[in-house]
Amino acid sequence: MHRAIIIDDERLARNELKKLLMEFPDVEVIDEAANAAEGIEKIDALSPDLIFLDIQMPGKTGFDMLTELDKAPHVIFTTAYDEYALKAFDVNALDYLMKPIEPKRLADALQKLQLAEEKEMAANQAFNRGMLTENDQVFVKDGERCWFVKLSEVRLFESVGNYAKVFFAGNNPLILKSLNALEERLDEKIFFRANRKHIVNMRMIEKIEPYFNGGLLLELKGGEKVEVSRRQAVKFKEMMSL
Q: CB atoms < 10 A from the CB of 83, how many?
């Protein structure tokens, strides 16, 4: 059973979608919201595994709302605005439904959800314990660009004040999370706090070299070089059995 929340500022659109979803007994609409602020509140309180999200809403857009979530549930965008189609796929949403929604397209979108959920069963269980696994995806927004990023694809987190720079593929946008807050949520067997400013993905390490004062220098797959402080080097060697 998929627990869903519909977030759309138009009551008629919400009612129409609820009516269509009655044909899909494995989707339960547990709540609805009329704007982004209400959406965040309800997602935090109810932890749905699916949201139907309108993009263009008064105040914050659907994209803005996603940036404020700790972890994005599965998202199916619903919108009347054609020019957003490309942007929605850019962020790797499950699907993108044009209003008025056709039952056949809705069925296709829910089929994609089924496939995605089969892969992520274990990851979701870990998230419910408050930890983020490498299969979880986080939503990142940088100006006009948006991404869903699997944590396994992140090479490095770098502290920039209260923000953290996220390095994945050829991108390194900022997210409003401190390194300490991230460290608490990440799996320490995979994400290692190398020093005060960096958390590295141990699976993305290409080369390890000795460095000043008993520290280490790591080179990551993206070419970044990160120093492991002397104190952390002891822990790192134990973990890597060096």
A: 8
Co-location of 200 and 236 in the same domain:
yes
Residues 121 and 145 both lie in one domain: no
Contact 20, 101 (CB under 8 A): yes
Query: What pLDDT score does 203 carry?
Result: 95
> Measured between alpha carbons, how far is residue 109 from residues 33, 97, 142, 204, 229 in Å?
21, 8, 26, 33, 47
Q: pTM of the prediction?
A: 0.57
d(CA 105, CA 116): 17
Same domain, 196 and 215: yes
Structural domain boundaries enclosing 39: 2-128
* pLDDT on residue 1: 87
As a whole number of angstroms, the distance between CA 119 and CA 13 comes to 31
What pLDDT does 83 receive?
A: 60
Distance of alpha carbon 147 from alpha carbon 93, whole angstroms: 9
Residues of the chain with pLDDT under 70: 83-92, 118-130, 242
Q: What is the pLDDT of residue 126?
A: 47
The number of angstroms, rounded, from the C-alpha of 47 to the middle of its chain's C-alpha atoms is: 14
Domain end point (choices 86, 108, 128): 128
Of 107, 128, 149, the last residue of a domain is 128
